[in-house]
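Fold Annotation — chain and its backbone

Encoding — discrete vocabulary of local shapes
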Amino acid sequence: MIRICVIGDIGSGKTHISKLLAGTKYPLFNADYEVGKIYASSRQVFAKLKKAIPKFIKSFPTQKQELTEAILNNKNNLRKIINIIHPEVRKKMNLFLAKNKKKKILVLDIPLLLENKLNVPEDVIIFVSAKQKLIKKNLQKRFGYNKKTVDLLKKIQLDAERKKLAADIIIENDFKRKQTRLRVKQILDNIVI
């Protein structure tokens, strides 16, 4: 099995690139999507969050806006949230890997792959790079965008240069769909022999 792991800065287009890589042929694990599902469906996670940051967590399902308020109120709340949610995401990832262990290729969209040491030496790591002004424009389109929250999240990530050094492939994302599709096709052609 080949694991294609997509990393990059917040707002660089990792999810879009991951979806293009997976297409309809390869299973895709998207950590951010799994986090959203956990917040929406896990009463156990809700209870842990309510206990850890009771002033901010009001009612089930867990609302991202409440988490954002908690983080902005006290940056230590980010660590509390991470300590609750990351083990749950890791469980989901392990289930995904076990379920798809016989597949030829898997695509993993895990923003904190390197930081959480989830990669293995055989992984094909793709770093999605983009100009800061394009990243900023992309982030501002997101519902609930908050610059302070993004800045705090960036602080828990390795810097772009260290991620680039760990990558096997770097994709320069200019957010032009046709060029991005062509680059992804070239990469898949080189990986899938």
